[in-house]
Amino acid sequence: MSAPRGGTRPPERFPFWGVLAVPAGIVFGTLIGVLLGALFGIAGIGAAIGAGIGIGVGLALLAAAIVVASAKD
Questions:
Q1: Is the pTM here over 0.85, yes or no?
Q2: Which residues contact 32 (CB under 8 A, 6 or more apart)?
Protein backbone atom coordinates (compact mmCIF):
# COMPACT_ATOMS: atom_id res chain seq x y z
CA MET A 1 0.00 0.00 0.00
CA SER A 2 1.19 3.49 -0.72
CA ALA A 3 0.86 6.55 1.45
CA PRO A 4 -1.93 9.00 0.55
CA ARG A 5 -0.88 11.79 -1.76
CA GLY A 6 -0.78 15.39 -0.65
CA GLY A 7 -3.84 16.41 -2.66
CA THR A 8 -6.23 13.84 -1.24
CA ARG A 9 -8.01 14.21 2.05
CA PRO A 10 -9.51 11.38 4.04
CA PRO A 11 -13.31 11.40 4.15
CA GLU A 12 -14.75 13.33 7.05
CA ARG A 13 -16.51 11.19 9.58
CA PHE A 14 -18.08 13.91 11.74
CA PRO A 15 -21.06 15.80 10.26
CA PHE A 16 -20.59 19.52 9.71
CA TRP A 17 -23.96 20.31 11.29
CA GLY A 18 -22.67 18.74 14.49
CA VAL A 19 -19.73 21.14 14.55
CA LEU A 20 -22.05 24.14 14.27
CA ALA A 21 -24.74 22.89 16.64
CA VAL A 22 -23.69 24.55 19.91
CA PRO A 23 -22.53 27.95 18.53
CA ALA A 24 -25.61 28.24 16.31
CA GLY A 25 -27.84 27.25 19.23
CA ILE A 26 -26.33 29.96 21.41
CA VAL A 27 -26.65 32.66 18.74
CA PHE A 28 -30.15 31.83 17.54
CA GLY A 29 -31.41 31.09 21.05
CA THR A 30 -30.17 34.46 22.27
CA LEU A 31 -31.68 36.32 19.31
CA ILE A 32 -35.05 34.64 19.68
CA GLY A 33 -34.91 35.21 23.46
CA VAL A 34 -34.20 38.92 23.00
CA LEU A 35 -37.13 39.26 20.61
CA LEU A 36 -39.54 37.38 22.85
CA GLY A 37 -38.20 39.16 25.93
CA ALA A 38 -38.71 42.54 24.28
CA LEU A 39 -42.22 41.50 23.39
CA PHE A 40 -42.97 40.78 27.05
CA GLY A 41 -40.98 43.74 28.37
CA ILE A 42 -37.63 42.38 29.65
CA ALA A 43 -35.17 41.65 26.85
CA GLY A 44 -32.25 40.72 29.16
CA ILE A 45 -34.10 37.89 30.86
CA GLY A 46 -35.36 36.68 27.49
CA ALA A 47 -31.80 36.64 26.16
CA ALA A 48 -30.56 34.63 29.14
CA ILE A 49 -33.38 32.10 28.88
CA GLY A 50 -33.01 31.89 25.08
CA ALA A 51 -29.26 31.30 25.34
CA GLY A 52 -29.85 28.53 27.89
CA ILE A 53 -32.40 26.84 25.66
CA GLY A 54 -30.08 27.30 22.66
CA ILE A 55 -27.22 25.60 24.51
CA GLY A 56 -29.50 22.71 25.41
CA VAL A 57 -30.68 22.26 21.84
CA GLY A 58 -27.11 22.59 20.54
CA LEU A 59 -25.85 19.91 22.93
CA ALA A 60 -28.69 17.59 21.89
CA LEU A 61 -27.74 18.06 18.22
CA LEU A 62 -24.07 17.53 19.07
CA ALA A 63 -24.96 14.24 20.77
CA ALA A 64 -26.96 13.22 17.67
CA ALA A 65 -23.97 14.06 15.47
CA ILE A 66 -21.72 11.90 17.64
CA VAL A 67 -24.13 8.98 17.27
CA VAL A 68 -24.32 9.47 13.50
CA ALA A 69 -20.52 9.67 13.23
CA SER A 70 -20.01 6.55 15.29
CA ALA A 71 -22.50 4.58 13.18
CA LYS A 72 -20.61 5.23 9.93
CA ASP A 73 -18.20 2.56 8.74
A1: no
A2: 50, 54
Q: Spell out the alpha helix ranges (H) of the chain.
A: 16-19, 21-40, 43-71
Instruction: Give the pLDDT score at 30.
Output: 94
Cβ count near 50 (within 10 Å): 24
Task: Note whether 31 and 46 are within 8 A (CB).
Answer: no
- Tell me what the mean pLDDT of segment 27-47 comes to: 93
- Provide the residue ranges of all domains of the chain, joining segments of one domain with +: 16-71
In terms of Cα–Cα distance, which of 28, 17, 27, 26 is closest to 62? 17
- Any idea what DSSP says for residue 35? H
Q: What is the mean pLDDT of residues 5-27?
A: 82
CB atoms within 10 A of CB 10: 6
